[in-house]
Amino acid sequence: MSKSLLEQLRQMTVVVADTGDIKAIEKFTPQDATTNPSLITAAAQMPEYQEIVDQTLLQAKKDAGAAASQADIVTLAFDRLAVSFGLKILQIIPGRVSTEVDARLSFDTEATVTKARELIAQYKAAGIDRSRVLIKIASTWEGIRAAEILEKEGIHCNLTLLFGLHQAIACAEAGVTLISPFVGRILDWYKKDTGRDSYPSAEDPGVLSVTTIYNYYKKFGYKTEVMGASFRNIGEITELAGCDLLTISPALLAELQATIGELPRKLDPTRVATMEIEKISIDQATFEKMHGADRMASDKLAEGIDGFTKALVSLEELLAQRLERLEKEVIAKR
């Protein structure tokens, strides 16, 4: 009997769920899970997760003290909510959860390091070993430098919003645990820039980008793991079969599970030995020069940070409104 694409994919690639929806994670039983501000904001608005949000808010209010303003309580709750979801997810999965640093700190190395340490401390207080947590940081030069510091402390990082080879090389040279190159967002940019409606999966610019990064890492023996992310269709996923990890939305996981057919391995470290690949050393000047010359990477990194920032603002507004309702409910019960 033929196997589903998902079942075959699991045999050559670590499958990661790209969601904050705990029920979806329970359904697909991935090895790891990733979240981001947009996913947490979406999950926080689902009725089934209202208890997590409320508990986080009430505990933050208690810990902040009687003199704390609503803004102070919301800030504290926001810092804890991603960890609250992360803890729930870690009860289900055997592997790691990725928890994101505030995108507004993307160009501040010191603040990123401080926030990452705070997140790890929260997980530690809940009894979670740091080996099960990846701190997600945007792949700016400053973010990569923060990750380099954190990795030396044994805090493992997932560098996100990655669109160019220069970002990938800088991450590998910094000793980052894992990178998340964004396949679908690269495709989006090229479709808009060229006016094309579609690309065959094998010619998808996002697929080609991840393939180039994967081959470069394997050619030069980098330990940094490649996790393709941000998929628009299952064709992009099947073209990257064999990648170290792939983080996939519940909708596409369901499509892979429902599709029967042969899935050949497309990425394979044994094939890179004979490839002619130029080794590039990245310092800050080279990084900035390559980033400036890559319109797609420049546009999508800026857009991604802006998008995550807007999601954070929406989440803070959502928490403020919920806190107000909870406070009214407490007063009404007196």
List keywords for this structure.
334 residues, alpha/beta, TIM Barrel, 8-stranded parallel beta barrel, 14 helices, 8 strands
In words, what does this structure look like?
This protein has about 325 residues and is α/β, with parallel strands linked by helices. It has one domain: TIM Barrel (Alpha-Beta Barrel). It has 14 helices and eight strands. The protein has helices at about 5-10, 20-30, 35-45, 50-65, 70-90, 110-125, 140-150, 165-175, 185-195, 205-220, 235-240, 250-260, 285-295, 295-334; strands spanning about 15-20, 30-35, 95-100, 135-140, 155-160, 180, 225-230, 245-250. An eight-stranded parallel β-barrel has the order 1-2-3-4-5-6-7-8, surrounded by eight helices. Strand 4 (about 135-140), helix 7 and strand 5 (about 155-160) form a beta-alpha-beta unit. The longest helix has about 40 residues, at about 295-334. It starts with a helix and ends with a helix. The mean pLDDT is about 95. Belongs to the transaldolase family. Type 1 subfamily. InterPro entries: Aldolase_TIM, TAL/FSA, Transaldolase_1, Transaldolase_AS. Its EC number is 2.2.1.2. GO terms for molecular function: transaldolase activity. This is Transaldolase.
Write a brief structural summary.
The chain has about 325 residues and is an alpha/beta fold. The protein has helices at about 5-10, 20-30, 35-45, 50-65, 70-90, 110-125, 140-150, 165-175, 185-195, 205-220, 235-240, 250-260, 285-295, 295-334; strands spanning about 15-20, 30-35, 95-100, 135-140, 155-160, 180, 225-230, 245-250. Helix 6 (about 110-125) packs across helix 7.
